[in-house]
Task: inverse folding
């Protein structure tokens, strides 16, 4: 009984962990600008994240090590710096975006400007990361995040997509001069979904909850069902953008705009549901990002870590957490729109994906860590292909975006 | 006494390994090692080094002297090899965290910074 | 001008050259974005009066629209790819009343919100057209 309860909780967690400011921003903008023409990117990203989450859980359950610990021990300090630095750069932008997302959600509920709400939003993240126990952090925002499933209700209320729109699924309409934007969104979609912070967080979570080889079923079910559910929310948002915003010539370039599609479908209640979903997913993701990076650093340097300990018992871990939050607040206070930050952060993550995850593939094939549970050939090839696609698309589209003055 | 496979360690097994104290507190990872030439010509591992200078040296040797110029050996500390009770994936030390300068840094941060923040458990 | 920008290491040249074809000019991009934001503003204002969103939601959204559109009138004439002066002037004439609505959207029943929606729609259409 207890096992099934924990499987259910795991799925809920994964659903919440999947969506964040990055996925909401990319999905909404994709739908508004290119109809259903980016759902393919969302689907391959989902396959990648299912495979990666399953691997990460398997790795930590069997080797009893987290990812960061294993990189440092197996590849040495010099190499460890690469994924660490790429992580810190990309995730600080993303954390600023998540906090901005919380602020915007609160502002949509209250009418107060999000810039005023940004510091309180950052404080909320700090307060929860500071003292809340691990399962609380996992489950509270994740449960609220289930509100994202109301996006599907929204699509039904709008009468479903037209036949014409459905054809953009396999024939994306990319107007002249918009190819760079399209590629930029492909990269952002991949980077937003295949988020390394989620993996660092998940592998530490598996350790905090003392997973063993008997947790492998729980792990597999969580990865597949949870991530698919999460992906459902983000695909629903693409549909909503394509059905409501695109015909009105909107581009979905601010988070509040994306909620208008829910408002059209379900009225003020729909708009409120969108704001709650935004709040919950961004809060959950902000916690996962700030903890993911702090775990990474503390484990890489061999410091005491853990969310279930009092802050003074893991002082260096908690100090990193505070400093990282302050950096994100500084980025956020520059006043850049959170949605643009989320897109930029996600694209940078896509660019760094090979650096963050190739060492992981090497570890996943090392019997020293995984005994007889190493990776199969299919998973290896699939992950390598998807990481390379993400890298190439990001590498091409980032300079293009900068040259054309967008991004 | 013949030496079995389990008793042979490579440098790779020691460097970057987790250091844990008697009371199972994680205090850091081995940044570098120090060895001395014995009179009979053998090289003997003497101590483990932990600190930013040693780490900088691992990135590139010139960096070590630059960082040393800035930090002036203040944060680098050695732990004599005799203090290691148990070798393996984790190096277990004989002393408690308070016995090592590296182990005291958590306490220092807790006492000087975190104590001012409510709910730190100080 | 183009040649000058495309100078540099080989990779950058390649990317820039393709960039010149794959992306829009700075002008059409800015104008197109602005058109989309005006459309969003118009929809938001209509939805607020149709009872589809609360006025708090509308107010929060307008803060973002405002920051996206701010300073456009100064930016527009000097942007790369800008057309003749008359077209730009025409856009600017539509920009001002629409921007007025974005800064002070009329969210109560008492004021003339339909006129604001109309101004926003006019601006949106003209900007989207100019943006291609």
Result:
């Amino acid at each position: 009984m207890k096992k099934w309860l924990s499987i259910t909780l795991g799925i809920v967690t994964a659903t919440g962990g999947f969506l964040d400011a990055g996925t909401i921003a990319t999905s909404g903008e994709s739908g508004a600008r290119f109809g259903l023409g980016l759902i393919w990117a969302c689907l391959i990203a989902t396959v990648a994240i299912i495979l990666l989450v399953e691997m990460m859980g398997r790795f930590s359950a069997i080797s009893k090590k987290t990812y960061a610990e294993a990189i440092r021990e197996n590849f040495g300090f010099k190499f460890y710096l690469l994924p660490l630095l790429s992580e810190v750069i990309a995730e600080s932008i993303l954390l600023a975006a998540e906090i901005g997302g919380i602020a915007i959600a609160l502002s949509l509920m209250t009418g107060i400007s999000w810039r005023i709400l940004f510091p309180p939003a950052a404080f909320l993240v700090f307060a929860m990361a500071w003292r809340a126990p691990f399962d609380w952090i996992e489950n509270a925002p994740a449960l609220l995040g289930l509100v994202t499933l109301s996006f599907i209700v929204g699509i039904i209320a709008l009468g479903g997509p037209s036949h014409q729109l459905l054809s953009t699924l396999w024939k994306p309409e990319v107007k002249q001069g918009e190819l760079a934007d399209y590629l930029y969104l492909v990269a952002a979609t991949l980077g937003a979904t295949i988020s390394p912070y989620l993996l660092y967080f998940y592998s530490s979570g598996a350790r905090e909850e003392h997973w063993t080889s008997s947790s492998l079923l729980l792990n597999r079910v969580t990865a597949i069902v949870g991530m698919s559910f999460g992906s459902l929310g983000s695909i629903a948002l693409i549909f909503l953008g394509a059905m409501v915003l695109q015909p009105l010539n909107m581009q979905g370039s601010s988070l509040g705009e994306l909620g208008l599609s829910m408002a059209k479908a379900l009225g003020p209640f729909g708009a409120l549901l969108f704001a709650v979903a935004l709040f919950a997913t961004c809060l959950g993701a902000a916690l996962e990002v700030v903890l993911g990076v702090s775990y990474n650093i503390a484990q890489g340097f061999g410091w005491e870590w853990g969310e279930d300990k009092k802050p003074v018992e893991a002082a260096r871990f908690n100090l990193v957490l505070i400093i990282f939050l302050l950096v994100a607040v500084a980025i956020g206070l520059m006043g850049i729109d959170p949605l643009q930050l989320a897109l930029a952060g996600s694209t940078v993550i896509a660019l760094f994906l090979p650096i963050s995850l190739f060492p992981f593939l090497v570890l996943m094939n090392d019997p020293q860590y995984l005994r007889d549970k190493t990776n199969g050939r299919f998973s290896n090839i699939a992950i390598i292909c998807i990481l390379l696609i993400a890298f190439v698309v990001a590498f091409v589209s980032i300079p293009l975006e900068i040259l054309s003055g967008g991004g | 006494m013949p030496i079995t496979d389990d008793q042979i360690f490579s440098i790779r097994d020691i460097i970057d390994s987790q250091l844990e104290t008697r009371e199972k507190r994680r205090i850091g990872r081995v940044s570098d090692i120090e060895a001395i030439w014995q009179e009979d010509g053998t090289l003997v591992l003497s101590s483990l080094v932990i600190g930013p200078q040693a780490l900088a040296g691992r990135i590139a040797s010139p960096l070590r002297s630059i960082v040393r110029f800035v930090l002036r050996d203040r944060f680098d500390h050695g732990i004599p090899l005799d203090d290691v009770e148990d070798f393996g994936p984790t190096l277990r030390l004989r002393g408690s965290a308070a016995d090592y300068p590296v182990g005291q840094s958590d306490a220092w941060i807790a006492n000087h910074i975190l104590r001012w923040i409510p709910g730190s458990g100080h | 001008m183009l040649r000058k920008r495309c100078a540099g290491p080989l990779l950058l040249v390649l990317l820039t050259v393709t960039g010149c074809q794959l992306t829009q000019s700075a002008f059409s991009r800015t104008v197109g974005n602005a058109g989309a934001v005006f459309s969003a503003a118009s929809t938001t204002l209509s939805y607020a009066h149709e009872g589809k969103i609360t006025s708090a939601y509308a107010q929060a959204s307008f803060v973002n629209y405002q920051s996206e559109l701010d300073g456009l009138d100064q930016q527009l004439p000097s942007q790369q790819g800008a057309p003749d002066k008359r077209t730009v002037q025409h856009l600017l004439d539509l920009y001002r009343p629409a921007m007025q609505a974005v800064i002070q959207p009329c969210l109560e029943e008492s004021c003339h919100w339909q006129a604001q929606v109309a101004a926003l729609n006019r601006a949106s259409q003209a900007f989207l057209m100019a943006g291609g």
Remarks:
- The radius of gyration of chain A is 20 Å.
- DSSP finds 18 helices and no strands in chain A.
- Chain A has a mean pLDDT of 89.
